[in-house]
Amino acid sequence: KKFKEAQFDDFSSVKNLRKYIYEATSSFRVSKARGIIAEFNRSRFDAYLFFSRIGSGNLGGKARGLAFMNSIIKKEKIFSKYPDVVITIPATVVLTTDIFEEFIEMNALHEIAQSPLPDEEILGHFVKAELPSGIRQDLITIASLANAPLAVRSSSKLEDSFYQPFAGIYSTYMIPNTNDINYMVDMLEEAIKCVYASVYFKTSKSYMSATSNLIDEEKMGVIIQAVCGNNYNGLFYPTLSGVARSINYYPIAPEKADEGVVDIAYGLGKLIVEGNTTLRFSPAHPKRIIQLANPESAVKNTQKYFYALDMNPDVFTPSVIDSINFQKLRVKEAEKDASFKHAASTYDYENNIIRDGLHFDGKKIITFSNVLNHNSFPLAQIISDLLKISKEAMSNEVEIEFAVNLDTPPGEPMIFNYLQVRPIVSSESELNAASVEDDKEGSLLFSEKAMGNGIINDIEDIVYIKTEDFDPARNKEIVLELEELNNTFRKQDRYYVLIGPGRWGSSDPWLGIPVKWPQISSARLIIEAGLENYRVDPSQGTHFFHNLTSFGVGYFTINPYLGDGHCDFEYLDNLSAAFESKLLRHVKLEKALEIRIDGRTNKGIILHS
Fold this sequence. Notes:
Low-confidence stretches: none
Number of strands: 29
Shape: globular
Radius of gyration: 27 Å
Strand content: 25-35%
Distance between the termini: 71 Å
Mean pLDDT: 88
């Protein structure tokens, strides 16, 4: 169709005509290859094949999910929905599970794999073993076409199961692309063997046992993918990496649970996986970011480090640590890299203000303001689209991983790489709403403004501020007593429910109790309980938001005098105290409480023990 529409006179030179023909042909081949799982063939393999397989076995859970979404992206025509943006999976080759089985069998690794040997020794045996015949030649073909580093990821039969969470159990390695093809293939082979060995590492065996799976039943596929990003003076990384979930258990109005939530970071996604400080937002409200609410919070609660792949091939060595050739760097060290302008803003010390852009004097902080505030790249819209179609396609709440390259050559589109989709496991995401609503009568505490999700049933302690004769003027004294109690809990590795009036963590003692997170860090559930003479609009945990989400702490708000939730303080007052002062009480129960939080309806309950 493109060729039919074009006329020779449309082109100012033969060079422009050649470019048009090349781009039109490339576009046609790319569109035809989308959604296809091709059989790998050395003589026909090229850069236009998005997804191919080596072997005839199972793809493994991770690869199966990726192949499925590759077809959905094509079906929904989302890959070209946004101007100057390509939404795609990375070029992917999968070694199916039968290659793994043949590798174990031909090298007689069963006994070693099942043994209680240390991880390092198991890895050593696997690395010395040979891959099946023909695999090296296939890898030579893959390496010869690689113009970026390659990620070697696990894709086991059990990964991304709808019933058990296997995310992060097995290893992922990255190797740099080099001009020495044989050297690169050596690294590829070693990385594949490392992924195979990770099935039998101590952590994996323990997890298999805990989830009632037999290690013999696990079979490992391997995904080989191009890494998204650019090489900056020997360090390779994307402009941003991210994880998005279709359900948000910590929505802050006007956010809604079903609008989802996103965590993004500058550089490689390892920072997110480790639970380090990232930028968190709702894709429906990308300009409302709690961490950036004021300059003090922005400086304190934004990303301080980033990860990059060391492109020196000598740094890679087979290791039980899959990030052996990653570098963890301070954000400051990226200031001269071309991608930094997309991610950073400047803190102006003199005027105590955050300024968009890098041309001001002051500390540079990661805000992604150009992307989220000024829409230089439609990240929030793309994620909303992908969460919606992924959730519908899988008929389940989902989590997706992605990487973005905004630093592309002039005239070339920006890249959104869809790396992975996995179901959010049912036991985590599904709490029967009726189990909260139906039991509220006669419960110890009930809230219609609850954040968090799931069941907590291992807490026997409640610490609460006395409501009778409560005096906000003494809130600072309460902080000192709480800190002492919290230290005791922390030393004993125990947790508690914390109940008190007003805004927890408010810097103004007249609005609430001005605690800092370390002073209440052993609280697993925090409750704001309004009093008739001390009504404060709910804070929804904003002072501790990063801590709540990082540690999975529940947060309830109740205002019983307005008919908004209730707490049975009379019952608590009649219990004998483990500790009591004029300001607060600590009660220890004979049996553990049952706490239920429904993240979909934002209702929470504490049942009498």
